[in-house]
Structures are given as C-alpha cells and as structure tokens.
Request: fold
Amino acid sequence: MTLSPRRPRRPRPAPLIGSLALATGVGLAVAPAHAATPTAATPTAAAAATIVVAKDGSGTYTTVQAAVDAVPANNPSAVTISVKPGTYRETVKIPANKPHIRLVGTTSSKNDVTIVYNNASGTPKPGGGTYGTSGSATVAVEADDFQARNLQFVNDFNEGNTSITDKQAVALRTAGDRIVLDNIGAVGDQDTLLLDSASKDKVGRVYVNNAWIQGNVDFIFGRASAVINKSAIRLVKRYDGSSGGYVAAPSTAAGKKGFLFINSNITGDVSSRSFYLGRPWHAGGDASLDPQAIVRNTDLSAAIKTTPWTDMSGFSWKDDRFAEYKNTGAGSGAASTDRPQLTDAQAADYEIADWLGGWQPSP
Reply:
C-alpha cells in the first residue's frame, strides 16, 4: 500500500478545531451555512424556533416525525426539535428540503431519549419489495446542516429472524453535508451507522463527537468525509454467539476524504483478535472508488486483529487508503506491510481540520 504523498502545507484556519468546545462537545454550534435560495415555486416560511416532542402529550407533538413534518420546506433558519425523555418507536425521515434542523434530547444523557425501529434490508415493505440497506434506517437525514445531541438512534432488528436473510439494519443514515452528531448513540448489529453523501460527486462532511457506536459487521460505513472523535466504539457478538466482524467499511470517492477515527477507544465483550478495523467497500463493484479509513491516537483492545485490515468483494485493501498512527492498547501494533502507519509528517495533514475542509463548527 502506498500512502498519499504529503501535500504542501497550507495556512491553517483559526484554531477552533481542538478548542474546548469541539473537544468536549459542550456548547458546540455550527456556523451558519448558505441557505437555499427560495423561489416562487418553493416559498419559505418561518417555523417556530423550538418544537417540543413528548410521549405524554405535554409537548406540541407526540412523535418526532410529526415535528419534522411541521418544519416548512426550505426553512432558512435553525429549528430545534426538543425531545423529552422516552422511547419513540417510529421511523423518521428528514428530507433534503428541510435543512437547519437540530434534534436535541432535553437532558444531558444520550440514553434518556431513544428513537428505535426494527426494519432490516430484507424486511418486506407494505407495498411490495424490501427496504434495502439504506431504506432500513430508523432515522434518515438527507438535509444539510443537521445536528443531533443527547439522544440515541437504535435499530433493534432481531438477527435471529430466520425468515429474513438480508440482515443489514441501519440505526442512523446521513446523506447531507455539515452534519454534527454530538453526545449521541448509534446502536445496532450489522450496518449500524451509514454516513453517506447525496451522490458520489457530492461532499458529505460529518463531525461525530462523544458518541457511543455499537455493532459487529461494517457498522460504520458509507462515503461521507467523517470525523469520529472522542467516541466509544463497541464491538458486539453476532446473534448466534459468534465473535467476529469489521468496524468500518468506507466507500470513499476518489479525491475525497473518508473516515478519520481519532482520540477514541474500540473495545467490547468479544473474543480476542476477532475483529478487523475495516475493509474497502467498493459499492456496486465501482472500481473508481478509493476507500479511506485512518485510525489514530485511539485505544484498541485485544479484540482487534494483528492484521487489522482485510479485502472485500475482490478488492484489496492495499490498493486503497488504510493506515494508523500512534494507537495504543493491546490491539495496537508496530508498522509492517500488513499494518501501515503514518509518519509524523503525514499525520500533520490527517487532522480534524483537514477533514472538515473549510467548514468550521464554532463555539
């Protein structure tokens, strides 16, 4: 595997990445982005600044989807959907024409608000056919400038269901740009967290901070340019009790950033040396893709294999972009042909600010 050559150093933006707000997730907000320009055919309307959702009827709505539906199309400014503690068994879709939504649990604990459903890729749809992997998502976010805080997204599909063979079951799917996921949970088994973009030629930047992400097979996947910072990545066994799987399956387009895992920890109650860090997903057999995953400054448990990367569907990981840097723990290891490590010079260009590419989440 040949790592990308170090590009010329460029002036750094103001040092807000790495600030206390970004490092801890406290007080994090996103600088306003360019809103879609309204047209005569798609007029905008002001929405309430805050919409309250409560299962007990004490809010404006009792479901999250009803609150999303209440946000006008092409809303030009931020709308907070404030969700009171409870379990909301529903699917939620935030369409591309509803940007600037902030979905926020009302307490500081991500466990107090749960949005959960149990569709899998092979689950039959009411109108015929099946949902497919992306369609199985409990929550699907297709809009730009979305934020979620203080809640968890769960797909509790039972993998032991023998009537369904396609068991991919997504808890959260994002396909927009400038997405913030702060103090959230994403809980599932196979294909838990799909971080995507609107299309192969579009950038989908995602900043994940202080998250709990749980799964077993390719459970962080997609073509987004995503930072996973200060997060707990938990490995779980399969429904049959077997231990083994893959953390990441990036499907990055050539010339774009993939997944950057940084300042996190990867562990779980699974067998030693049973999980790969990742493998290259060339979605649809697309040889033009150039999947990328970098794992740096992260604590790796003994669950991680000594050869942490592997091939997928006939594509060699060595032809794509996989590397580590200064990881620690029983699952870490020295540089070798099977375990590429960034040099210090290369690592200087593999930082959070590089991944966000001019988008500056600010205090």
